Amino acid sequence: MSGKLYGVGVGPGDPELLTLKALRLIGEADIIAVPGEEPKESVAYKIVKGAYPKLDEKELLAVPMPMTKDKELLEKFHAQGTSAVQKELDKGHTVVFLTLGDPTVYSTYLYIHKRILSLGYETEIVSGIPSFCAVSARLNTGLVEKAEPLHVIPASYQIEEALKLPGTKVLMKAGKKMKAVKNRIQELGAKGVMIENCGMPDEKIYRSIEEIPDNAGYYSLIIVKDETEGER
User: What is the secondary structure of 94-109 as a DSSP string?
Assistant: First the structure.
């Protein structure tokens, strides 16, 4: 009998934001899959470790996921990761794959999930708190009100037209393009705030676009609101 794969969201950084369901499944799992070559160096691992000290007693499965847009390279690693997970499922093991934030929002887990599902195995996605919700809460403010739309935008791609949309814009994963993203926001005369490493020990809050460093870390999220938002 084949095992089951769970894609478990661990939230944005604060171990106390793990859900009760996530902790239960982690405790029951035979295998904990972690994105990265060294599981114990993974941010997702460290978050869970903060809430579940017995994590070191679990068997960890490293699933390398390179930070690249090279389609051939990504396909290679996704195939390797799928194969590694499949081998554990064929042994009847329950596999919990840890992923930052929520598994349904730009997560590395989805690449494995779709492949495992297509192979006929049982899978389940377990929601975690999305980073943009945690950032807004940390800033002690709401994301949207009344009829305002919310746009979640991958900032390492073309963002010019997306920034012109009405409502609140969430810019995720700017990465090495942070300087260009900042410049584009300023050119449009928009205002925004950013948190780097939300909920983690090295968290940093930037109250304006001008304050944001060009070399901000990967786990940085910008919120841009309409100028008229405060007048509603």
Answer: -EEEEESB-TTSS-TH
What pTM value is reported for the model?
A: 0.92
Q: Sorting pLDDT into bands at 50, 70 and 90, what band is 228?
A: low
Q: What is the dihedral of CA 177, 17, 101, 195, to 10 degrees?
A: -10
Q: Specify whether the CB–CB gap between 108 and 42 falls below 8 A.
A: no
DSSP single-letter state for residue 3: -
CB neighbour list of residue 129: distance below 8 Å, 6 or more residues apart: 9, 11, 12, 17, 19, 101, 102
Within its chain, how far is the Cα of 17 from the centroid? 14
Q: How deeply is 157 buried, as exposed, middle or buried, from its count of CB atoms within 10 A (0-12, 13-18, 19+)?
A: exposed
Distance of alpha carbon 148 from alpha carbon 166, whole angstroms: 8
Alpha-carbon span 224 to 192, nearest angstrom: 4
In sequence order, what are the residues at sequence separation of 6 or more whose Cβ sits closer than 8 angstroms to the Cβ of residue 130?
A: 12, 101, 102, 105
- What would the mean pLDDT of 27-44 be, rounded to a whole number? 96
Can you tell me the distance from the alpha carbon of 79 to that of 174, in angstroms, rounded to the nearest whole number? Answer: 26
Per-residue pLDDT tens over the stretch 102-147: 999 999 999 999 999 999 999 999 999 999 999 999 999 999 999 9
CA angle 185, 195, 125 (to 5 degrees): 105
- CATH numbers and ranges of domains, the chain: 4-126 (3.40.1010.10), 131-231 (3.30.950.10)
Q: What is the pLDDT of residue 232?
A: 41
